[in-house]
Specification:
Number of helices: 3
Structural class: mainly beta
Largest sheet: 7 strands, mixed
Oligomer: single chain
Shape: globular
Radius of gyration: 16 Å
């Protein structure tokens, strides 16, 4: 991999105000949401140590919102497939009940469900989750997979191909994001849609 891909640059959170229909909506956005602060390593990708989770959240422009009243609570689903095999998205990314820490973007279990919980109505992107996780993500690959190893990354959002940088995908309610890594030139189709548990409906 090139040194430029390996460079880890911190994210700087900025607040923007988008006015639509006369209503101001705060938008949480890094200075470059496509730049993920994460390592280029092979799966499995474990959850960061408890002591590292607040720092990883800060790199993603996120703070601890544990116990705060929520203005938004949405759920997205993330799946990663490599050569036809699923890769586990670990629980407790950006979260730890023992230390009462919860970033606005976090996971609870290995279902792939991503919780977006914030005291403000904001826009959050997939790259922030990957920065919390500590895993590299860009348009060509995940971790150390893609590009130089002969694999290509295909991204699907709700079953449709997504052509941009996946780090910039806005996390929306009941959205299904699939990252599929397969040998370059191989025909790739979207995986089956996620079956949401009944208690999420």
């Amino acid at each position: 991999m090139s040194p430029s891909r390996r460079a880890l640059l911190p994210l700087v959170a900025s607040a923007l105000v988008v006015v639509g229909g006369g209503v101001g909506v705060a938008v949480a956005q890094s200075s470059n949401p496509a730049r993920v602060v994460g390592a280029e390593t092979a799966p499995p990708w474990p959850v960061p140590d408890v002591d590292d989770r607040p720092g990883r959240a800060e790199l993603a422009g996120l703070e601890n919102v544990w116990g705060q009243d929520l203005a938004m609570h949405v759920h997205s689903h993330l799946s990663i497939t490599v050569d036809g095999e699923p890769v586990t998205v670990p629980g407790d990314i950006g979260h730890d009940s023992g230390t009462k820490f919860a970033a606005p973007i976090h996971t609870h279990d290995t279902s792939g469900i991503v919780h977006v919980e914030s005291p403000r109505r904001e826009s959050f992107v997939l790259g922030q989750l990957f920065t919390e996780w500590g895993v590299h993500l860009d348009q060509s690959g995940v971790g150390d997979l893609g590009g130089d190893d002969g694999r290509s990354l295909t991204v699907f959002v709700d079953g449709s191909r997504y052509g941009g940088d996946p780090a910039g995908i806005r996390l929306s309610d009941f959205e299904d994001v699939a990252l599929v890594l397969a040998p370059a030139g191989e025909a790739v189709t979207a995986p089956p849609g996620f079956a949401w548990p009944a208690d999420y409906n």
